[in-house]
Specification:
Two copies of one chain form a homodimer.
Chain A: H1 28-37, H2 41-53, H3 57-68, E1 71-72, H4 73-80, H5 84-96, E2 100-105, E3 108-113, H6 116-129
Antiparallel strand pairs in A: 1-3, 2-3
Helix pairs in contact in A: 3-6, 4-5
The structure holds a DNA duplex (30 and 30 nucleotides).
Chain lengths: 130, 130
DNA sequence: TGAATACTTGAGCAATAATGCAAATAACCG
DNA sequence: CGGTTATTTGCATTATTGCTCAAGTATTCA
């Protein structure tokens, strides 16, 4: 449970590199000024994670479809021309991230969007592209 | 040139899978209705590609930094605590996607944002997170 | 011209992630 | 119960990606 994947691999982010130019800074005040404005690493990671959700076309299509209708896994797979397994894997991921929720009706699992923000973000960029 | 990477792997998207439920559709009219609204595969791929740019913390930090100041590769690397090479690789990618531009001054290459939309999108999500 | 510096680039490695397959779970029905 | 169906899940495979290393290019300066 709670194995929310799609985690951006935090890590180094500030590991003294010896691959740096000798002078260290070409324009130190400018660098310092920007450094002071840099968001915290944790914030950066959260932002990247949000974008990562929509960085895969399968997930984009799933989220788009669910923004239009509540669908069971089977219909979603048929709609997208994907295997049930592939869809279920992605749904688990989205479930762990609390982006979708589901409702059990007999053996069917009806999925819908849980978090409005992501769908909102998707449609925003979608309109921009079209 | 023009080897714009970060391409989402288009592919199948509509390959008759035998892994589909027997009935084919639980709720055919609903599936058809959503199918009719589905954006074209090409559109979906473009959207995913846009999100993909910001799905990595290093690129998020680079784009944030460049949204604050024009910086040479060396200062950018120092600012982010990354190797020059790592930064340069990401800059090439962003260059190929026309998201950043650069200005040569002697041996220094000063990078800045070329496309406002991506920086805009980043700041939007950033504010939402903070 | 030659050394040094700033950056770019190609190859390759290690980590991630998307999907398929097969087994497991769960609900329904005879 | 036993069989069928809908979905989930673990594992394996393959593809992608971010980074390092080392070599290459270009520009400045002595």
């Amino acid at each position: 449970m709670a194995e929310a994947n799609l985690k951006v691999v935090s890590e180094p982010i500030a590991k003294a590199q010896d691959d740096v130019c000798e002078i260290l800074y070409v324009d130190e005040p400018r660098v310092k000024a920007v450094a002071a404005q840099m968001p915290a690493d944790e914030t950066i990671r959260q932002v990247a994670n949000i974008f990562k959700v929509l960085s895969d076309p399968t997930r984009v299509r799933i989220i788009f479809a669910l923004s239009r209708a509540e669908l069971c896994v089977c219909d979603l797979a048929a709609l997208l021309g994907l295997s049930i397994s592939a869809v279920s894997h992605q749904l688990r991921l989205l479930r762990n991230l609390r982006l979708v929720k589901y409702r059990k009706e007999g053996r069917l699992a009806y999925y819908s969007l849980d978090d409005d923000h992501t769908g909102q973000l998707l449609h925003e960029v979608l309109e921009h592209v079209q």
